């Protein structure tokens, strides 16, 4: 099988047409068409459906595209690594939860150690598909509900109740969850999910937020502004607590905890770059939590 023809096939699929691929690669359209025809004959499979609107992969072509793209990335990474003196080189594609500010410090430190590794970081509420979305490692919060990945525990974060000193001066300091629920509350809510109940041990209390959002920075802003109480993850609340802008409420109650895992595809052997990232995360988190 022609290695270069496979690279050109990937370029055509990504570009959506022979003309666009020609502009990106600098390879004439006639050469692109001939190379891919030769590739289809060698594989004895039609890879592309051609039309006036452009091209799109057939079912078999899509399978070949996804698997060959990953294989080529590994080969190119291997070539760069053996040609470089000692440094890891290549691209790392990761996913983190939205508003996960703790990870920005980790990523900048990672790239300071490995300056030749480029990072694409995807952030979304959606649970991405590692294979289809081409993500090497995802950081996931909470319980995992899949066996298709290898999960490496990283740390556990805690949810804290917080409010501004001004709000407490005006409303008093709640001593129970039931009292807390009578305060103006800001809560996290997505388009399709909102679960407004606090639970610590046997005690469970429902509440109705007057402001809800899937943007954690918005919840922080409302809490600091004295608009209401909020429940924030400990690393988000930490700078506000240390500066005195927020105060922790009900500190003696058991905390809601959420595990963090780094996950990667079970069927895909992790590259040297992925292993470096996994090891660095463990090292960095150990220093952060010590």
Automatic annotation (TrEMBL):
Gene3D superfamilies: 3.40.190.290, Winged helix-like DNA-binding domain superfamily/Winged helix DNA-binding domain (1.10.10.10). GO terms for molecular function: DNA-binding transcription factor activity; sequence-specific DNA binding. Residues 1-58 form the HTH lysR-type domain. It holds the Pfam family LysR_substrate. PROSITE patterns: HTH_LYSR. Keywords: DNA-binding, Repressor, Transcription, Transcription regulation. InterPro entries: LysR-type_TF_proteobact-type, LysR_HTH_N, LysR_subst-bd, WH-like_DNA-bd_sf, WH_DNA-bd_sf. GO terms for biological process: DNA-templated transcription. PANTHER family: HTH-TYPE TRANSCRIPTIONAL ACTIVATOR TTDR-RELATED (PTHR30537:SF5), HTH-TYPE TRANSCRIPTIONAL REGULATOR (PTHR30537). Belongs to the LysR transcriptional regulatory family. This is LysR family transcriptional regulator. The lineage of its organism: Bacteria, Pseudomonadati, Pseudomonadota, Gammaproteobacteria, Enterobacterales.
